[in-house]
Design goal:
- This protein has 167 residues and is of the alpha+beta class.
- It is built from eight helices and four strands; from the N terminus they run H-H-H-H-H-E-E-H-H-E-E-H.
- Strands 2-1-3-4 form a four-stranded antiparallel sheet.
- Strand 1 and strand 2 form a beta hairpin.
- The chain is elongated and about 70 Å long.
Amino acid sequence: MFQLETPLFELILRGAFLYLLFLVLFRILPRRTASEMASMDLVFLLLITEAASHALGDFSSLTGGTVQIMTMVVLNWGINKLSFHFRWIERLAEHRPLVVIRDGKTIPEHLRRESLTAEELDSNLRMEGLERVDQVKIAHLESDGRLSVIKADPQDDEGGPPSKLAT
């Protein structure tokens, strides 16, 4: 039960390979995949997990599974520490914020690149309390898939401060 069935170095190599593979895959996938879990995304994640468990190997040894889990934990910790100290590593591992709305106008090529539909964008704007795109000064699709919105100043739409009526 505690005896290794597979050489220690092979266990570490398998765990490291899969960790780095997933890091690259999730860097390539559109951002919204990480933030939203539609049923299709959940099925995809479950299938990847199942495939990864077979790639890690069928172990009856607790030690073998523990070695691989610890390998992934150490790699994750290491990448996080390195990305904190070295910006180029952070840029490799994380998406940069992407402007999808500027001055009340969408940027269609950015929406297409991230596979963000008009309906999804409208839904995110409604969650921010906005009804229309023209109410947005700037909106960024963040690295975690969330939309951050800075609302347009309502006074800008009217050409200045509201006039005071004489009574």
